[in-house]
């Protein structure tokens, strides 16, 4: 979940577990201080929009549960599943805390011996993270009720004394960030077809969030939050910063500013006004990273190129210049017409005015049309400029860039 750029918000989240859980139970009554009717009103599905109905018909597995249906684990069970949080079980680490590999029975979700049953990812809260509890609550309340093929599945949680943990399905291929930016023998460069497949999957997940009557704004869309299963199907993870969208005809919600440098929409950074289409901007940044193989923010690049959007966006609609910034690792794998159309969508998503950005449903439709383009790709000679960028990128540390952590504001 990263380090947050935020100030304290004293308002309680009323969709949170009211008390620590009980071992082995399922959290069908996890919501506190609210009735089932209130829960439905906040996540009711729109029935009047033909586009939304079309989206839902295309993705019949996407649904919003009335209540979370999560298993409540004890801390002892979490210790058993991870072999007492052994260091060799660590999958990764972020601002929220450490993510461990664990093993549970596939049917009962009871802890099992390592190598037997089903592998899961267990995220353990860092008690020094001041925003960790609020983010943990948001994760349970949103991801615990959302079911969609392109959202990571939350299986359960643990809340025992000061111990807060979340249990997820295990995503075998890790994050999109690792595949785009890490240079190691164990990570094969993503082909054009896989990049497009990942983009479409992530877009479908985001479109689903935006398609409920009470729209859900994800607020932290970035490459590290897009996880990949064994078949490179993309799933959005980490709902710690998710917000319910505007109501009563309002165009935006006003909130403390939280996000990630390089991905947050300009209107949100400037005013704290969060629009549904603020997510679309973040998607545009990730799409630009997919096209170029370059990070949204990288202080190791030449000064004028450190902020990817600022530098590369003006080049997207120029055929000759676009060829100089496309990732050389996917050369000859794509039809340039497909790359050009993807660049055009990227440019629209990055429009300064949120009203000028397309909806995510429109983005999904356009990307699916591009996926159908089957022209024979042509060999192209890219300029030495791209080679320089690629060389610079290869020097990047395997560890996540510190510039991609969330950031704090005193406002």
TrEMBL record:
<keyword id="KW-1003">Cell membrane</keyword>
<keyword id="KW-0808">Transferase</keyword>
<dbReference type="InterPro" id="IPR001245">
    <property type="entry name" value="Ser-Thr/Tyr_kinase_cat_dom"/>
</dbReference>
<keyword id="KW-0723">Serine/threonine-protein kinase</keyword>
<dbReference type="InterPro" id="IPR050823">
    <property type="entry name" value="Plant_Ser_Thr_Prot_Kinase"/>
</dbReference>
<keyword id="KW-0472">Membrane</keyword>
<keyword id="KW-0547">Nucleotide-binding</keyword>
<protein>
    <recommendedName>
        <fullName>non-specific serine/threonine protein kinase</fullName>
        <ecNumber>2.7.11.1</ecNumber>
    </recommendedName>
</protein>
<feature type="domain" description="Protein kinase">
    <location>
        <begin position="85"/>
        <end position="370"/>
    </location>
</feature>
<dbReference type="Pfam" id="PF07714">
    <property type="entry name" value="PK_Tyr_Ser-Thr"/>
</dbReference>
<keyword id="KW-0067">ATP-binding</keyword>
<comment type="function">
    <text>May be involved in plant defense signaling.</text>
</comment>
<dbReference type="GO" id="GO:0004674">
    <property type="term" value="F:protein serine/threonine kinase activity"/>
</dbReference>
<dbReference type="GO" id="GO:0005524">
    <property type="term" value="F:ATP binding"/>
</dbReference>
<feature type="binding site">
    <location>
        <position position="124"/>
    </location>
    <ligand>
        <name>ATP</name>
    </ligand>
</feature>
<dbReference type="InterPro" id="IPR000719">
    <property type="entry name" value="Prot_kinase_dom"/>
</dbReference>
<comment type="similarity">
    <text>Belongs to the protein kinase superfamily. Ser/Thr protein kinase family.</text>
</comment>
<dbReference type="InterPro" id="IPR008271">
    <property type="entry name" value="Ser/Thr_kinase_AS"/>
</dbReference>
<feature type="compositionally biased region" description="Polar residues">
    <location>
        <begin position="19"/>
        <end position="60"/>
    </location>
</feature>
<feature type="region of interest" description="Disordered">
    <location>
        <begin position="1"/>
        <end position="60"/>
    </location>
</feature>
<keyword id="KW-0418">Kinase</keyword>
<dbReference type="InterPro" id="IPR011009">
    <property type="entry name" value="Kinase-like_dom_sf"/>
</dbReference>
<dbReference type="InterPro" id="IPR017441">
    <property type="entry name" value="Protein_kinase_ATP_BS"/>
</dbReference>
<dbReference type="GO" id="GO:0005886">
    <property type="term" value="C:plasma membrane"/>
</dbReference>
């Amino acid at each position: 979940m990263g380090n947050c750029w935020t100030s304290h918000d004293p308002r309680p989240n009323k969709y949170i577990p009211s008390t620590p859980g009980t071992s082995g139970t399922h959290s069908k009554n996890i919501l506190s201080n609210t009735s089932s009717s209130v829960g439905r009103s906040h996540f009711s599905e729109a029935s009047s929009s033909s586009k939304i109905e079309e989206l839902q018909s295309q993705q019949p597995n996407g649904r919003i549960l009335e209540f979370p249906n999560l298993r409540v684990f004890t801390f002892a069970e979490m210790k058993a599943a991870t072999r007492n949080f052994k260091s060799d079980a660590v999958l990764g680490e972020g601002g929220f805390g450490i993510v461990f590999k664990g093993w549970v029975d596939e049917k009962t979700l009871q802890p099992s011996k390592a190598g037997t049953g089903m592998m899961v990812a267990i995220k353990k809260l860092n008690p020094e993270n001041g925003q960790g509890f609020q983010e943990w609550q948001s994760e349970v309340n949103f991801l615990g009720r959302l079911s969609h093929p392109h959202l990571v599945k939350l299986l359960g949680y643990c809340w025992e004394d000061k111990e807060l943990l979340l249990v997820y399905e295990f995503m075998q291929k890790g994050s999109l960030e690792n595949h785009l930016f890490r240079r190691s023998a164990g990570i094969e460069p993503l082909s054009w077809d896989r990049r497009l497949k990942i983009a479409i999957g992530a877009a479908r997940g985001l479109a689903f969030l935006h398609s409920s009557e009470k729209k859900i704004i994800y607020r932290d869309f970035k490459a590290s939050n897009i996880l990949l299963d064994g078949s490179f199907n993309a799933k959005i993870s980490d709902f710690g910063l998710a917000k319910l969208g505007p109501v009563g005809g309002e165009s935006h919600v006003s909130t403390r500013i939280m996000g990630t440098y390089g991905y947050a929409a300009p209107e949100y950074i400037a005013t704290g006004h969060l629009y549904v289409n603020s997510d679309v901007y973040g998607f545009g940044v990730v799409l630009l990273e997919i096209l170029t193989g370059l990070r949204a923010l990288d202080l190791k690049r030449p000064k004028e190129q450190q902020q990817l959007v600022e530098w590369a966006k003006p080049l997207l609609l120029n055929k000759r210049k676009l060829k100089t910034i496309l990732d050389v690792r996917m050369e000859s794998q794509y039809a340039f017409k497909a790359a050009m159309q993807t660049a055009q969508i990227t440019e629209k998503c990055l429009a300064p005015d949120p009203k000028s950005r397309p909806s995510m449903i429109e983005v999904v439709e356009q990307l699916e049309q591009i996926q159908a383009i089957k022209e024979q790709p042509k060999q192209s000679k890219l300029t030495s400029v791209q080679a320089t960028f690629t060389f610079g990128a290869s020097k990047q540390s395997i560890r996540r860039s510190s510039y991609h952590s969330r950031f704090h504001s005193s406002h």
